[in-house]
């Protein structure tokens, strides 16, 4: 996830440099999406639009930390298993309880790191970029070269694998529908830079540049990574076997192991590659934790959350929303407890995080689609005549992909294969809407402008930097 170096300044100095009018025109907050929703929906519908978007962001981001923690833990589990001898050679396979402990541990590490000053987080983000660029290129280039044999282009681009023995799914059209899950899960979060615009200079330009460059990098690297994996498959049926070297738990780990063991008859290269992949999950989870805390802080600053005064407090020394960070970590750890009983919990966490975060994009996009053009003031980046077709396609795509994440991924449907995302998401969103109807609509008027906060109308920690 692309980040950039944060340049800190006091609110007063920034206002003096940029001028009151320019700062007012920027109108950015750490909440990004829900602030955009309020601005684009107008004074009548703005509060409701920002309320819905804010809660979708909160749901998506807090559960996204859990999704990253689970993925990182699973990669580390495979790293240990292969390094100690594999499933066939007596290697150590972490039990459910140990898995959950590792899940909790990595969440705590992210929380601790996010309590340090923003300059330290910025340094870690720079390390993250180079780790993922260099490590990603290494995996993408080396894996197909190491593999003893590679799949044909026809097989990679035309074959549909449903794996009915392990998934219970034999319908190719249904497999095609579900195929958007992985790509859509990977292709979100590119607005992370926007959540930090209050902490950067020239946000009206650096924010969009960071978002666009992130989309480009993720698309190119993600596509290349998937191609490297699929071309390097040695035995398609063996990937899903519970008796293979990775116990049938993580298909990419088995692909990497088969490639290196087939070529060099040892697992050293696979261990190195899995460590690279684990590092990518680690840095991504760290970044998501940073983003989630910023959104919780921003939403609490506007009074949207229970006990908002607690979550909007900022550490006076490090200038970070420490309470918000630990709230996100606590929610993530609670989400991980059901893993002790069911693996399907990961599917639910992943589904909820994607629906919440991607669904949050739909609110400002729809508002932009229907708003009167004379009410919109273009910034440095403007789509012009392409704005409505692009918004329409984006909105419909979001509706489709969010619907897919509510579908079962395994059959027959039992307690251990049921996708609990619709139930969990339905309960939370119902409570949020009931709160709005009975109480919040009477007092919530939309997000607080940073300009208002800096003039002393509300507490705004970034203004004290």
Give a structural overview.
The protein is mostly helical and 465 residues long. The chain has a single domain (11-464), classed as Amino acid/polyamine transporter I (Up-down Bundle), CATH 1.20.1740.10. The chain has helices at 11-18, 20-26, 33-83, 96-113, 118-146, 153-158, 164-167, 172-178, 180-186, 203-231, 251-264, 268-301, 308-311, 322-336, 345-370, 387-404, 421-443, 450-454. α3 runs antiparallel to α12 (268-301) and α4 (96-113) crosses α12 (268-301). The longest helix is centred in the first third of the chain and has 51 residues, at 33-83. Residues 1-29 and 450-465 have low confidence and may be disordered.
Q: How far from one another are the termini? A: 25 Å
CATH superfamily: Amino acid/polyamine transporter I
**What about the largest sheet?**
none
**Total domains:** 1
Average pLDDT, rounded to a whole number, is 80
Helix and strand layout, with pairings?
Blueprint: H1 11-18, H2 20-26, H3 33-83, H4 96-113, H5 118-146, H6 153-158, H7 164-167, H8 172-178, H9 180-186, H10 203-231, H11 251-264, H12 268-301, H13 308-311, H14 322-336, H15 345-370, H16 387-404, H17 421-443, H18 450-454
Features:
465 residues, disordered N terminus
Summarize the structure.
66% of the residues lie in helices and 0% in strands.
